[in-house]
TrEMBL record:
Coiled coil start-end: none
Start and end residues of each stretch annotated as Disordered: 1-28
GO MF assignments: pyridoxal phosphate binding; transaminase activity
Descriptive protein name: Aspartate aminotransferase family protein
Reported cofactor(s): pyridoxal 5'-phosphate
Keywords: Aminotransferase, Pyridoxal phosphate, Transferase
Pfam families named in the record: Aminotran_3 (PF00202)
NCBIfam families, A to Z: PRK06105.1, PRK07480.1
């Protein structure tokens, strides 16, 4: 009886979805024909769809549910703040208690030279804000020609006009005449895909020096900033070779660029440190943050700003004409503050670093000798598996991502949510995943690889 009810309820949701909902990053026509998967509830690292099927969410929603689902403290923090003050803005000389407390807490966990945050509603808004702040900074410094920002091919910085322009996703650029003027791109440090015969360290230097070449091509007097993720997330969990970031830092320093380190995924423990900048010893001028800031429970983002930049903004004696109605929304800020409190009091990032991440990585590495696997790489609670037809030459299967799609769908069938970018399988589980859940994740991944190999034969 309940099954029949569940079925008819699912069909009715799918029909309403088909008739009234346009999907982000999806083919709404195809989804309307196939029926959307309707997710209804979740707890810990598991999520249920409307048919009652349970999945291990090895993607933490969309790289964001760092504390896992169902944390009552976050629900309570939101309810408390909603009763007290559900909304007020930060424009015109105003602040609210959760916002100032959150700004202070962020300064405590960020690298020591970063002590200010500008709040926004998302990672994309954070990067729009970065673009405006970089240009404003150079105006205030009396160097208005330094307007161009250099990003990377296959980088991801969000989906607004500025975010998608700073990012280097070709399918996004192809829709909407992007990038906007004043944005340039260099190659990515993706050794497995583009390193050819070079060894990774050699390739890392080559990829970094593309920045210097681009600066010289554009003229150093015209370049304001370089933006990059510490580890490319959406691009395929691309961990740069060890030589890459030190060389980038040298170049950024030599040409006096602002360094924007997009921490939207890496921030808040994903790599086993508070920030990717800690992992790679970076000294950013700007750190866009979002996702794990609130564990995804409510939308909030920010731009963390280094002291040397904040000083310039504070000294200008004029308004910064930028902000959002929901900049530092008090309910979102209260949830983010509680999220930070839990991360600290339960020592979650320390546990990731010393215990669960090493376990995840060692278990993932047992997949390296699977015939379909060309490389397993990871750090902290990030893992990527490259699917190939030939291991030695790193040659892919024909079909442009067909192997990845097959593997993702076989994983789903068994109740495991992975993501596929081309033929690269990605995972980014909640930071609180337990060792036995890691076992479940790896066992199901292995099974999905077996089924994929079989299907490709
Ligand atoms: C997700 C993401 C963004 C965009 O964040 P939204 O909240 O989706 O706007 C920006 N940068 C990186 C690195 C991301 O992963």
């Amino acid at each position: 009886m309940t099954d029949v009810l569940t079925q008819s309820q699912t069909q009715s949701w799918q029909q309403d979805d088909a008739e009234h909902h346009l999907h982000p990053f999806g083919d709404s026509g195809a989804i309307a024909r196939e029926g959307a998967r309707i997710m209804t509830r979740a707890k810990g690292v598991h999520i249920w769809d409307s048919t009652g099927k349970v999945y291990l969410d090895a993607f933490a929603g969309l790289w964001c549910v760092n504390l896992g689902y169902g944390r009552e403290e976050l629900v309570e923090a939101a309810a408390r703040q909603m009763r007290e003050l559900p909304y007020y803005n930060l424009f015109f000389k105003t602040a609210t208690p959760p916002v100032v407390e959150l700004a202070k807490a962020l300064a405590e966990v960020a690298p020591s030279h970063i002590n200010h945050t500008f709040f926004v509603g998302s990672g994309s808004e954070a990067n729009d804000t970065v673009l405006r702040m970089v240009r404003r900074y150079w105006d205030l410094k009396g160097k208005p020609s330094r307007k161009t920002i250099i990003g990377r091919e296959n980088g991801y910085h969000g989906s607004t006009v500025a975010g998608a322009s700073l990012g280097g996703m070709k399918p996004m650029h192809a829709q909407g005449d992007l990038p906007i003027p004043g944005v340039a791109h260099i190659r990515q440090p993706y050794w497995f895909g583009e390193g050819g015969d070079m060894d990774p360290d050699e390739f890392g230097l080559v990829a970094a020096r593309a920045l210097e070449d681009k600066i010289l091509e554009l003229g150093p007097e015209n370049v304001g900033a370089f933006i990059a993720e510490p580890i490319q997330g959406a691009g395929g969990i691309i961990i740069p070779p060890d030589t890459y970031w030190p060389e980038i830092q040298r170049i950024v320093h030599e040409y006096d660029l602002l360094l924007v380190v997009d921490e939207v995924i890496c921030g808040f423990g994903r790599t086993g440190e508070w920030f990717g900048s800690d992992t790679f010893h970076l000294t950013p001028d700007f750190m866009p943050i979002a996702k794990g800031l609130s564990s995804g429970y409510l939308p909030i983002g920010g731009v963390m700003v280094a002291d040397r930049v904040a000083e310039v903004f504070k000294a200008e004696g004029d308004d910064f004409n930028h902000g959002f109605t929901y900049s530092g929304h008090p309910v979102c800020a209260a949830v983010a503050l509680e999220n930070l409190r839990i991360l600290r009091s339960e020592r979650i990032i320390e546990t990731v670093k010393t215990t669960t991440a090493p376990y995840l990585q060692s278990q993932l590495n047992t997949l390296a000798d699977h015939p379909l696997v060309g490389e397993v790489r990871g750090i902290g609670m990030l893992g990527a598996i490259e699917l190939v037809e030939d291991k030695a030459s790193r040659r892919r299967y024909a079909g442009n991502g067909r192997a990845g799609t097959l593997c993702r769908d076989f994983a789903l069938e068994q109740g495991l949510i992975l993501r596929a970018t081309g033929d690269t399988m990605l995972m980014s589980p909640p930071l609180v995943i337990a060792p036995e859940e890691i076992d479940e994740l790896v066992t199901k991944t292995r099974h999905a690889l077996d089924l994929t190999l079989e299907a490709l034969k």
